[in-house]
Design brief:
Mean pLDDT: 94
Structural class: alpha/beta
Largest sheet: 8 strands, parallel
Strand content: 25-35%
Distance between the termini: 25 Å
Number of strands: 23
Shape: globular
Length: 494
Amino acid sequence: MKNVTKRIILLSGLVVALSAGVHAQSFEWISSTEGRVWQSVKVKLQTNAEQTPLLTVDGAEEGTTFKAWGTCFNELGWDALNMLPRNEQESILRKLFAPDGDLKFTLGRFSMNANDYARDWYSCDEVSGDFQLKHFNIKRDQTTLIPFIKAAQQYNPNMTFWTSPWSPPSWLKINHYYSVRSDRNQNEMAPLSDVALFENQTEKNAKVFPQQLAVNDYLIQDPRYLQTYADYFCKFVDAYKEQGIPVSMVMFQNEAWSYTNYPGCAWTPEGIIRFHTEYLQPTLKKRHPEVALYFGTINTNRFDFIDQVLSDPRMRASVQGIGLQWEGRQILAKLRAKYPEYKYVQSESECGWGSFDWKAAEHTFELMNHYLGNGCEEYTFWNAILADGGFSGWGWKQNSLIHVDSKAGTATFTPEYYAVKHYSHYILPDSKIVSYKAGENDKTPILVVMTPQQKQVITVGNFNHEVKEITLKLGKRYLNATLQPHSLNTFVEN
């Protein structure tokens, strides 16, 4: 720029290149690095580009509409929250769920029956042969999940909810057990029952997940069992509705392609199609037409398998959307290209290995970029809060946004919490995802969003070991910034 003196402003570890004397659109720049989070400075758009723009937004982009951020309500999370003093519990709930809180969650997921973050394994009807579900009840949930959800509703009474099972009641399954496979250290399933999973199939493909596919449906495929299970879904929705917790969406199974030693259920394509089209969808339509049925949660990158299910024309008339997590992210773009008529949601953020470190924060930041950038309308985190290493009921250490020390009775907001805040604090429901750039090649994921208030929000990560000079073209002006190494950044239009 002619006759303009450049000056460098250094503030709280941020380096911003500004051109003096230019009247331009202004942004607040929030940046976080390890040990130094949520640093803020003002920055203005410029008339000149200092680098080749990594992304260009011209205002003609249609974008996709983003609907909600949310989290899962699990028993071990409720236990962790209750290890804290009452005033701190309320502070955390406000930060997670209040419209003026940090994360502004408006969506909740909970498990139908036990999952791997239940205290132990159970279902709402373990009376074998109870096809009329006379013994169905949610008494267990009324002591754990429901109080947890109601505590969140106090801060946001307009929350929406969805649910999926990890395992059907054990008596509805071919192995009569909650798990899919035996594990002498983690469950009491008879090892001989493992024969049902693959039978005589030995072929493996190490390039996909899972390497082998189940050859049997673990839900008994007799019509009476299938209809009972569809009725079970409706009974569950009824029971929660009576508690003031409306379920707006269900998915048939959590991670049907994880053949678990904790509660789970394996399915074949034929069984998935049969249950959705002949039993679950017709029963929901009759008894709960207000409840949407989504196909999920998909945690496999075997596109051919999922395509086999979705290509059945009866599925198009049965499900309204698709939920993906873990390996499912790898086929999201391809699925959306072939099946644009469906809505897409991210159903569970990856939980890591209990590291609670900055690397986990960067990974979650990139996941949000990927799912929102590829058209997902909702994003659900796994455990918002866990205690003492985040161990599951079967011994897997997992991350959470808040980590509790039970002995000290204190809570730590993890790096991942701030990664989430960089998105959810500013990207509100009904925002438009305008443009995005994946970060696989240069470790610089970028997302451009237009809020309902017609303000731009831009998230940028720099996961390199060195400073990164970036330029984005926004209309006729440029955002020029110097990103610190391993930093999370959000630019919010004033």
